[in-house]
Amino acid sequence: DQQVKQNSPSLSVQEGRISILNCDYTNSMFDYFLWYKKYPAEGPTFLISISSIKDKNEDGRFTVFLNKSAKHLSLHIVPSQPGDSAVYFCAASSPGTYKYIFGTGTRLKVLA
Amino acid sequence: KAGVTQTPRYLIKTRGQQVTLSCSPISGHRSVSWYQQTPGQGLQFLFEYFSETQRNKGNFPGRFSGRQFSNSRSEMNVSTLELGDSALYLCASSAPGQGNIQYFGAGTRLSVL
What we know:
Chain A is mainly beta. Chain A contains no helices and eleven strands. In chain B, 0% of the residues lie in helices and 53% in strands. Chain B has no helices and eleven strands. In chain B, the strands form two sheets. In chain B, strands 2, 4, 5, 6, 9, 10 and 11 form a seven-stranded mixed sheet that branches. In chain B, a hairpin with an 8-residue loop joins strand 9 (87-94) and strand 10.
């Protein structure tokens, strides 16, 4: 049972445009969500997070939106840069579980 | 401050053997989690340790085990290896007061032949 889903395995975007990566979840107990970026041969690196008490969090070019009623979150990257080309994972956790559930990832390719 | 260090980076084993992977967390981090990454499956949670105690465990068979030492370093062990255990094994550490952010190592790539 995949509780966190990233339904788009890949996405291509032109440099300078907006990249929108989507993530859906099924467990209403999730209260904290994170996005990670992963380059080949490296571990995932933390990008941005959002608590369930918020609906938006922004950090530079990265913004995460949370729609709790739809159990959906998205990561917006504006403007997209070639260095953003990587696999992006969303992850979720529920209180007191000390574990994260990760999606299967979306491979973003930013075309110069 | 040094990041999360995983050793070895690459490992080749044969079916039936056992393997031990090591993880040194960021200094001051007491929580260590392990994940298995396979193509198309994302990161699957294995277990999490805090102060030498396992606080949560994922849905993996008992062949997968782990432990944490008093210096927060952690090891995971896989016994009776199967071909399907070939994967990238990732370790992550975190500290209280830093939100729920986990910092990952580069992983150990295990190939089972």
